[in-house]
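<tokenise_the_fold>
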Amino acid sequence: MQVESNKVVIIDYTLRNDAGDVLDQSSPEAPLSYLHGHQNIIPGLENALNGKTQGDKVDASIPPAEAYGEYDDNLIQAVPRNMFQGIDEIEPGMQFQAQTGQGVQIVTVKEANEESVTIDANHALAGETLHFNVTVKEVRDASQEELDHGHVHGPGGHEH
């Protein structure tokens, strides 16, 4: 069975940056399961897996535009410290959820002082070319419930 829209795809993967550092990887006992064609993984990796079958190995370098986007300096801003009420210690690297016009977004603290906190709303991997080594473990038909919900249920997937 080929990888195509509305199929459940189960993969083992290793993700590296340009320097070759491992950023993420699946564990042998917990491969990643996702519903192909439903924006459950980055577009560039989904495109690289189109048409593959069980047992195929894929090495793919995904440019930022097909991953988490280019780094955007406009997504860095200073906000009043009083927006972080109830939080005594705010240090660079801390992450918070922020409610935006596009929904909930993760922001990372760049710096903080008594009056303001500088936050960065770029994804941690924005601007990065991502290098994936993937093995397709299984391809199966999605259940109607998985199609209705737009994601995989059961092992390797998530349920809402």
